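Reopening this ticket.

The earlier resolution said the output was attached, but the attachment link was broken on my side. Pasting everything inline this time so it's all in one place.
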Amino acid sequence: MQTISGQVARMLHEEHTAALSLLQRLSACLSRHGPITPPKNTDHAVARLLSELSSAIETEIRIHFKFEEDSLFPLLDAFGERELMDLYLEEHRVIVSLGDKAAVMARAARTEGFDAPAWASFHSVATAFADRLTGHAEAEEAALLPLLDDLLDMEADERLAETYQAMR
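Inline output:
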C-alpha cells in the first residue's frame, strides 16, 4: 500500500488493521475446531473471541460503514467512481447481513455454548463473514484509501476526521 497521508485514511487504515487481526483470530479458531466439533463451553479464549466479534460487528463495523456510506461514498460518486461506490455498498449489505447472523450466534454461544448443529451453522456463517470482510478491507486499502488523497483537501480531511471521531 502507498503512504497514507490524510487523517481519514489513517483512521480507516487503523480500523482495517484491527478488523483483519480479529478476523485472523476468528479464522484460526474456525480452522482449529473444524465445522463438526464445537469448542468447549469452558474455553475462555473462544468466549473472549466471541465477545470481541459480536462487539466489533455491532459497533465498530457499523460505524465504519455508516461513515463511509454517508461521508465518503457521495464523494466517490461525485468524483466519477460510481461503480466503485456501488460495489462497496453491495459488499456492505452482504457483510452486515452475515455479521448480524454471526453476532446473534456468538452472543447466544457465550451463554449457552455450541452444540454440534449450532457450531456448524456458526462455522459456515462466520467463515463467509470473515472471507467477505477480509476481501472488502483489503480492497479498500488498495483502492479507496489512495483515492482519498485526490478526493480530500486538508480542510475537508480535517473536517471529516472530526466527524468520524465524533461517531466513534
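Reporter confirms the inline version is readable. Residues 7-167 form a domain with the Four Helix Bundle (Hemerythrin (Met), subunit A) fold (CATH 1.20.120.520). The mean pLDDT is 95.
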